[in-house]
Amino acid sequence: MVKLTYNLGGGLPDPSIFPKKISDIHFEPEISFQELDKELLKILNYRGINAKNEELLLTTGSIQGIYIFSYSFIDPGDKIAIEYPTFAGAIKVFKARNPDLVKLPVIPYYNIEVKEKIKAMYVIPTGQNPTGINMKLEDKKRLLELAEEKDFIILEDDAYGLLTPEQPTLKSMDKNGRVVYITTLSKVFSSGIRLGIMVADKEINETFRKVKENIDGGNSTLSLSLLFESLKDGSFWEGLTRAKRIYNEKKSIMCEALNRYLPQAEWNYPEGGLFYFIKIKGINSEQLLTKVKDKVIFSPGSKFFFDGYGKEYLRLSFSYSSPEEIEKGIEIISKEIQ
Ligand SMILES: Cc1ncc(COP(=O)(O)O)c(C=O)c1O
Protein backbone atom coordinates (compact mmCIF):
# COMPACT_ATOMS: atom_id res chain seq x y z
CA MET A 1 0.00 0.00 0.00
CA VAL A 2 1.24 3.52 -0.84
CA LYS A 3 1.98 5.60 2.24
CA LEU A 4 -0.62 8.23 3.02
CA THR A 5 1.01 11.57 2.28
CA TYR A 6 -1.60 14.30 2.44
CA ASN A 7 -4.10 14.35 5.24
CA LEU A 8 -6.91 16.78 4.49
CA GLY A 9 -9.36 14.71 6.48
CA GLY A 10 -9.85 15.55 10.13
CA GLY A 11 -9.62 18.86 11.95
CA LEU A 12 -6.24 18.06 13.51
CA PRO A 13 -4.34 21.15 14.60
CA ASP A 14 -0.93 22.03 13.16
CA PRO A 15 1.61 20.53 15.61
CA SER A 16 3.85 23.60 15.28
CA ILE A 17 1.25 25.78 17.02
CA PHE A 18 1.56 23.84 20.27
CA PRO A 19 3.02 26.01 23.00
CA LYS A 20 5.72 23.49 23.97
CA LYS A 21 6.68 19.91 23.34
CA ILE A 22 4.79 17.83 25.86
CA SER A 23 8.12 16.47 27.12
CA ASP A 24 9.33 19.97 27.92
CA ILE A 25 6.50 20.65 30.28
CA HIS A 26 7.20 20.08 33.92
CA PHE A 27 4.61 17.74 35.41
CA GLU A 28 3.17 19.06 38.63
CA PRO A 29 1.40 16.32 40.56
CA GLU A 30 -0.20 18.98 42.76
CA ILE A 31 -2.18 21.57 40.90
CA SER A 32 -4.33 24.22 42.49
CA PHE A 33 -7.82 23.63 41.18
CA GLN A 34 -8.82 27.05 42.43
CA GLU A 35 -6.09 28.64 40.35
CA LEU A 36 -6.88 26.42 37.39
CA ASP A 37 -10.53 27.53 37.56
CA LYS A 38 -9.39 31.16 37.56
CA GLU A 39 -7.40 30.54 34.39
CA LEU A 40 -10.32 28.74 32.75
CA LEU A 41 -12.59 31.66 33.56
CA LYS A 42 -10.10 33.87 31.68
CA ILE A 43 -10.48 31.66 28.60
CA LEU A 44 -14.25 32.02 28.86
CA ASN A 45 -13.86 35.76 29.35
CA TYR A 46 -12.00 35.86 26.07
CA ARG A 47 -15.27 34.59 24.55
CA GLY A 48 -17.27 37.24 26.41
CA ILE A 49 -18.60 34.82 29.02
CA ASN A 50 -18.64 35.79 32.70
CA ALA A 51 -19.09 32.40 34.33
CA LYS A 52 -18.96 31.47 37.99
CA ASN A 53 -16.98 28.51 39.32
CA GLU A 54 -20.15 26.55 40.05
CA GLU A 55 -21.22 26.86 36.40
CA LEU A 56 -18.01 25.33 35.09
CA LEU A 57 -17.23 21.74 34.14
CA LEU A 58 -14.04 20.45 32.54
CA THR A 59 -14.87 17.59 30.23
CA THR A 60 -12.74 14.92 28.59
CA GLY A 61 -12.84 16.57 25.18
CA SER A 62 -15.87 18.57 24.13
CA ILE A 63 -17.42 15.49 22.55
CA GLN A 64 -17.92 14.28 26.12
CA GLY A 65 -19.76 17.55 26.85
CA ILE A 66 -22.10 16.80 23.94
CA TYR A 67 -22.61 13.32 25.33
CA ILE A 68 -23.33 14.65 28.85
CA PHE A 69 -25.86 17.10 27.41
CA SER A 70 -27.57 14.40 25.35
CA TYR A 71 -27.66 11.96 28.23
CA SER A 72 -29.14 14.62 30.53
CA PHE A 73 -31.68 16.19 28.19
CA ILE A 74 -32.63 13.82 25.38
CA ASP A 75 -35.06 10.94 25.68
CA PRO A 76 -36.04 8.68 22.79
CA GLY A 77 -38.51 10.42 20.46
CA ASP A 78 -37.70 13.96 21.66
CA LYS A 79 -37.50 16.53 18.88
CA ILE A 80 -33.99 17.97 18.69
CA ALA A 81 -33.00 20.55 16.06
CA ILE A 82 -29.51 20.31 14.64
CA GLU A 83 -27.77 22.16 11.84
CA TYR A 84 -28.05 20.54 8.45
CA PRO A 85 -25.13 19.78 7.94
CA THR A 86 -23.28 19.65 11.26
CA PHE A 87 -20.34 18.07 13.13
CA ALA A 88 -20.37 14.33 12.38
CA GLY A 89 -19.28 13.37 15.92
CA ALA A 90 -22.29 15.16 17.41
CA ILE A 91 -24.70 13.43 15.01
CA LYS A 92 -23.46 10.06 16.27
CA VAL A 93 -23.87 11.06 19.90
CA PHE A 94 -27.39 12.40 19.36
CA LYS A 95 -28.49 9.41 17.30
CA ALA A 96 -27.51 7.09 20.14
CA ARG A 97 -30.34 8.69 22.18
CA ASN A 98 -32.89 7.92 19.44
CA PRO A 99 -34.34 11.40 19.10
CA ASP A 100 -36.45 12.78 16.30
CA LEU A 101 -33.89 15.01 14.55
CA VAL A 102 -35.21 18.24 13.01
CA LYS A 103 -33.29 20.18 10.34
CA LEU A 104 -31.93 23.67 10.91
CA PRO A 105 -30.75 24.51 7.37
CA VAL A 106 -27.31 26.14 7.14
CA ILE A 107 -26.60 26.19 3.39
CA PRO A 108 -26.19 28.78 1.93
CA TYR A 109 -26.83 30.45 5.30
CA TYR A 110 -28.87 29.79 8.47
CA ASN A 111 -32.62 29.68 8.11
CA ILE A 112 -33.55 30.62 11.66
CA GLU A 113 -37.03 29.17 11.99
CA VAL A 114 -38.50 26.78 14.51
CA LYS A 115 -41.81 25.45 13.25
CA GLU A 116 -42.02 22.34 15.41
CA LYS A 117 -42.12 21.99 19.17
CA ILE A 118 -38.52 21.07 19.97
CA LYS A 119 -36.87 20.26 23.28
CA ALA A 120 -33.34 21.31 22.39
CA MET A 121 -31.17 22.70 19.63
CA TYR A 122 -27.48 22.04 18.91
CA VAL A 123 -25.62 24.82 17.05
CA ILE A 124 -22.05 25.78 16.14
CA PRO A 125 -22.66 29.49 15.50
CA THR A 126 -18.99 30.46 15.08
CA GLY A 127 -16.95 28.81 12.32
CA GLN A 128 -19.69 26.26 11.78
CA ASN A 129 -18.43 22.74 11.08
CA PRO A 130 -18.40 21.88 8.17
CA THR A 131 -19.48 25.11 6.38
CA GLY A 132 -17.30 27.73 8.13
CA ILE A 133 -20.29 30.11 8.46
CA ASN A 134 -20.57 32.63 11.30
CA MET A 135 -24.12 33.26 12.48
CA LYS A 136 -24.95 36.97 12.24
CA LEU A 137 -25.59 38.96 15.41
CA GLU A 138 -29.26 39.63 14.62
CA ASP A 139 -29.83 35.91 14.06
CA LYS A 140 -28.20 35.09 17.39
CA LYS A 141 -30.62 37.51 19.06
CA ARG A 142 -33.54 35.97 17.17
CA LEU A 143 -32.48 32.46 18.16
CA LEU A 144 -32.36 33.40 21.84
CA GLU A 145 -35.82 34.99 21.56
CA LEU A 146 -37.13 31.84 19.92
CA ALA A 147 -35.66 29.68 22.68
CA GLU A 148 -37.54 31.78 25.22
CA GLU A 149 -40.78 31.95 23.24
CA LYS A 150 -40.86 28.26 22.35
CA ASP A 151 -39.20 27.02 25.52
CA PHE A 152 -36.21 25.03 24.36
CA ILE A 153 -32.61 24.77 25.48
CA ILE A 154 -29.62 25.48 23.22
CA LEU A 155 -26.32 23.65 23.22
CA GLU A 156 -23.78 26.10 21.78
CA ASP A 157 -20.65 24.32 20.52
CA ASP A 158 -17.90 26.94 20.27
CA ALA A 159 -15.15 24.57 19.11
CA TYR A 160 -13.62 27.20 16.78
CA GLY A 161 -14.55 30.34 18.72
CA LEU A 162 -11.16 30.94 20.33
CA LEU A 163 -9.79 31.46 16.81
CA THR A 164 -12.28 34.27 16.03
CA PRO A 165 -12.87 36.00 19.38
CA GLU A 166 -14.55 39.00 17.73
CA GLN A 167 -17.60 36.83 17.05
CA PRO A 168 -19.88 37.02 20.13
CA THR A 169 -21.08 33.78 21.67
CA LEU A 170 -24.74 33.03 22.24
CA LYS A 171 -23.83 32.31 25.85
CA SER A 172 -22.52 35.86 26.33
CA MET A 173 -25.91 37.18 25.14
CA ASP A 174 -28.01 34.72 27.12
CA LYS A 175 -30.01 36.42 29.88
CA ASN A 176 -32.23 33.50 30.87
CA GLY A 177 -30.00 30.48 31.20
CA ARG A 178 -31.23 29.05 27.89
CA VAL A 179 -27.72 28.25 26.62
CA VAL A 180 -25.39 25.46 27.62
CA TYR A 181 -21.93 26.28 26.30
CA ILE A 182 -19.13 23.93 25.33
CA THR A 183 -15.73 24.61 23.85
CA THR A 184 -12.64 22.52 23.26
CA LEU A 185 -8.90 22.97 23.68
CA SER A 186 -8.30 20.45 20.88
CA LYS A 187 -7.99 23.06 18.12
CA VAL A 188 -5.70 25.54 19.84
CA PHE A 189 -3.74 23.63 22.47
CA SER A 190 -3.66 19.88 21.89
CA SER A 191 -6.26 17.38 20.73
CA GLY A 192 -4.56 14.55 22.66
CA ILE A 193 -4.98 16.36 25.95
CA ARG A 194 -8.74 15.70 25.68
CA LEU A 195 -10.09 18.74 27.47
CA GLY A 196 -13.27 20.69 26.90
CA ILE A 197 -14.86 23.47 28.96
CA MET A 198 -18.58 23.38 29.61
CA VAL A 199 -20.72 26.14 31.14
CA ALA A 200 -24.28 25.76 32.33
CA ASP A 201 -26.46 27.26 35.05
CA LYS A 202 -25.61 25.92 38.49
CA GLU A 203 -28.50 23.46 38.76
CA ILE A 204 -27.98 22.00 35.31
CA ASN A 205 -24.25 21.85 35.93
CA GLU A 206 -24.79 19.81 39.09
CA THR A 207 -26.58 17.19 37.00
CA PHE A 208 -23.81 17.33 34.40
CA ARG A 209 -21.14 16.81 37.07
CA LYS A 210 -22.91 13.68 38.33
CA VAL A 211 -23.18 12.28 34.81
CA LYS A 212 -19.48 12.95 34.20
CA GLU A 213 -18.50 11.30 37.47
CA ASN A 214 -20.27 8.17 36.31
CA ILE A 215 -18.52 8.22 32.95
CA ASP A 216 -14.87 8.70 33.91
CA GLY A 217 -14.47 9.77 37.51
CA GLY A 218 -12.73 12.98 36.46
CA ASN A 219 -10.13 14.31 34.06
CA SER A 220 -6.58 13.06 33.73
CA THR A 221 -4.38 15.03 36.12
CA LEU A 222 -1.56 14.80 33.62
CA SER A 223 -3.72 16.68 31.11
CA LEU A 224 -4.79 19.17 33.74
CA SER A 225 -1.20 19.78 34.82
CA LEU A 226 -0.08 20.38 31.26
CA LEU A 227 -2.86 22.87 30.70
CA PHE A 228 -2.34 24.56 34.06
CA GLU A 229 1.39 25.01 33.44
CA SER A 230 0.78 26.46 30.01
CA LEU A 231 -1.89 28.87 31.22
CA LYS A 232 0.34 30.05 34.07
CA ASP A 233 3.42 30.70 31.92
CA GLY A 234 1.39 32.26 29.10
CA SER A 235 2.38 29.73 26.43
CA PHE A 236 -1.29 28.80 25.95
CA TRP A 237 -2.04 32.35 24.78
CA GLU A 238 1.12 32.53 22.66
CA GLY A 239 0.05 29.30 20.97
CA LEU A 240 -3.39 30.77 20.29
CA THR A 241 -1.86 33.83 18.59
CA ARG A 242 0.33 31.52 16.49
CA ALA A 243 -2.64 29.32 15.64
CA LYS A 244 -4.67 32.26 14.31
CA ARG A 245 -1.82 33.42 12.07
CA ILE A 246 -0.94 29.96 10.73
CA TYR A 247 -4.53 28.95 10.09
CA ASN A 248 -5.24 32.21 8.25
CA GLU A 249 -2.22 31.68 6.01
CA LYS A 250 -3.22 28.11 5.25
CA LYS A 251 -6.81 29.14 4.60
CA SER A 252 -5.58 31.49 1.85
CA ILE A 253 -3.31 28.80 0.43
CA MET A 254 -6.18 26.33 0.20
CA CYS A 255 -8.33 29.03 -1.41
CA GLU A 256 -5.72 29.54 -4.14
CA ALA A 257 -5.33 25.79 -4.68
CA LEU A 258 -9.10 25.34 -5.01
CA ASN A 259 -9.32 28.15 -7.55
CA ARG A 260 -6.44 26.72 -9.53
CA TYR A 261 -7.26 23.00 -9.51
CA LEU A 262 -10.99 22.77 -8.90
CA PRO A 263 -12.60 25.76 -10.68
CA GLN A 264 -15.81 23.75 -11.09
CA ALA A 265 -16.30 23.47 -7.30
CA GLU A 266 -18.87 25.64 -5.49
CA TRP A 267 -18.00 26.96 -2.05
CA ASN A 268 -18.07 29.97 0.23
CA TYR A 269 -14.92 31.35 1.79
CA PRO A 270 -15.02 30.05 5.38
CA GLU A 271 -15.55 32.92 7.86
CA GLY A 272 -14.32 30.73 10.69
CA GLY A 273 -13.32 27.18 11.52
CA LEU A 274 -10.72 25.05 9.78
CA PHE A 275 -12.52 23.73 6.71
CA TYR A 276 -13.71 24.35 3.19
CA PHE A 277 -16.99 22.63 2.42
CA ILE A 278 -17.07 22.32 -1.34
CA LYS A 279 -19.67 20.99 -3.73
CA ILE A 280 -18.77 19.38 -7.05
CA LYS A 281 -21.88 18.61 -9.06
CA GLY A 282 -22.28 15.03 -10.22
CA ILE A 283 -19.61 13.43 -8.05
CA ASN A 284 -19.93 10.83 -5.33
CA SER A 285 -17.39 11.90 -2.71
CA GLU A 286 -17.51 8.54 -0.90
CA GLN A 287 -16.41 6.73 -4.08
CA LEU A 288 -13.85 9.44 -4.78
CA LEU A 289 -12.33 8.95 -1.34
CA THR A 290 -12.04 5.20 -1.94
CA LYS A 291 -10.06 5.91 -5.10
CA VAL A 292 -7.62 8.46 -3.66
CA LYS A 293 -7.37 7.49 -0.01
CA ASP A 294 -3.85 6.07 -0.19
CA LYS A 295 -2.59 9.45 -1.33
CA VAL A 296 -4.94 12.02 0.12
CA ILE A 297 -7.85 11.94 2.51
CA PHE A 298 -10.79 14.26 3.07
CA SER A 299 -14.16 13.92 4.75
CA PRO A 300 -17.05 12.97 2.45
CA GLY A 301 -19.99 15.35 2.81
CA SER A 302 -22.55 12.69 3.74
CA LYS A 303 -20.96 12.36 7.20
CA PHE A 304 -22.32 15.78 8.10
CA PHE A 305 -25.97 15.37 7.08
CA PHE A 306 -27.88 13.20 9.54
CA ASP A 307 -29.89 11.52 6.78
CA GLY A 308 -26.97 10.58 4.52
CA TYR A 309 -27.52 13.40 1.98
CA GLY A 310 -24.48 15.35 0.74
CA LYS A 311 -22.60 12.99 -1.58
CA GLU A 312 -21.58 15.87 -3.85
CA TYR A 313 -19.81 17.61 -0.96
CA LEU A 314 -16.24 17.27 0.37
CA ARG A 315 -14.91 18.76 3.57
CA LEU A 316 -11.26 19.77 3.21
CA SER A 317 -9.28 20.67 6.29
CA PHE A 318 -6.43 23.18 6.08
CA SER A 319 -5.26 22.91 9.68
CA TYR A 320 -2.91 19.92 9.74
CA SER A 321 -1.15 19.69 6.39
CA SER A 322 1.68 21.93 5.21
CA PRO A 323 1.04 24.43 2.38
CA GLU A 324 2.74 22.09 -0.11
CA GLU A 325 0.67 19.14 1.06
CA ILE A 326 -2.54 21.17 0.77
CA GLU A 327 -1.71 22.06 -2.81
CA LYS A 328 -0.63 18.53 -3.82
CA GLY A 329 -3.66 16.99 -2.12
CA ILE A 330 -6.07 19.18 -4.04
CA GLU A 331 -4.21 18.55 -7.29
CA ILE A 332 -4.62 14.79 -6.78
CA ILE A 333 -8.35 15.19 -6.13
CA SER A 334 -8.74 17.31 -9.25
CA LYS A 335 -6.89 14.79 -11.46
CA GLU A 336 -9.09 11.97 -10.18
CA ILE A 337 -12.37 13.68 -11.09
CA GLN A 338 -11.31 14.83 -14.55
C1 LIG B 1 -17.84 21.39 16.24
C2 LIG B 1 -16.97 20.43 16.99
N1 LIG B 1 -17.27 20.12 18.26
C3 LIG B 1 -16.51 19.26 18.96
C4 LIG B 1 -15.40 18.66 18.41
C5 LIG B 1 -14.64 17.65 19.22
O1 LIG B 1 -13.69 18.20 20.01
P1 LIG B 1 -12.93 17.35 21.13
O2 LIG B 1 -11.65 16.92 20.53
O3 LIG B 1 -12.74 18.33 22.23
O4 LIG B 1 -13.80 16.23 21.55
C6 LIG B 1 -15.04 18.96 17.10
C7 LIG B 1 -13.89 18.31 16.48
O5 LIG B 1 -13.69 18.20 15.30
C8 LIG B 1 -15.85 19.85 16.37
O6 LIG B 1 -15.59 20.17 15.09
Q: What's the arrangement of secondary structure elements?
A:
Elements: E1 6-7, H1 33-46, E2 56-59, H2 62-73, E3 79-84, H3 88-95, E4 100-105, E5 120-123, H4 137-149, E6 153-157, H5 170-173, E7 179-184, E8 196-199, H6 202-216, H7 221-232, H8 235-261, E9 275-279, H9 285-292, E10 296-297, E11 299-300, E12 313-317, H10 323-337
Parallel strand pairs: 1-10, 3-4, 3-5, 5-6, 6-7
Antiparallel strand pairs: 2-8, 7-8, 9-12, 11-12
Helix pairs in contact: 2-3, 2-6, 8-10
The chain binds pyridoxal-5'-phosphate.
Pyridoxal-5'-phosphate binds next to helix 2.
Q: Identify the CATH architecture of the largest domain.
A: 3-Layer(aba) Sandwich
**What does the average pLDDT come to?**
93
User: Can you list the ligands bound to this structure?
Assistant: pyridoxal-5'-phosphate
Enter the CATH topology name of the largest domain: Aspartate Aminotransferase, domain 2
Structural class: alpha/beta
Tally of discrete structural domains: 2
Describe this structure in words.
The protein folds into 2 domains: 6-15 and 237-337, Aspartate Aminotransferase, domain 1 (Alpha-Beta Complex), CATH 3.90.1150; 25-233, Aspartate Aminotransferase, domain 2, CATH 3.40.640. Helix 4 (137-149) links the parallel strand 5 and strand 6. It has a 7-stranded mixed sheet with strand order 2-8-7-6-5-3-4, sandwiched between helices. Helix 2 crosses helix 6 (202-216) and helix 8 packs parallel to helix 10 (323-337). The chain has helices at 33-46, 62-73, 88-95, 137-149, 170-173, 202-216, 221-232, 235-261, 285-292, 323-337, and strands at residues 6-7, 56-59, 79-84, 100-105, 120-123, 153-157, 179-184, 196-199, 275-279, 296-297, 299-300, 313-317. The mean pLDDT is 93. It has 338 residues and is of the alpha/beta class. The relative contact order is 0.19. The longest helix has 27 residues, at 235-261. It is globular, with a radius of gyration of 20 Å. It is built from 10 helices and 12 strands.
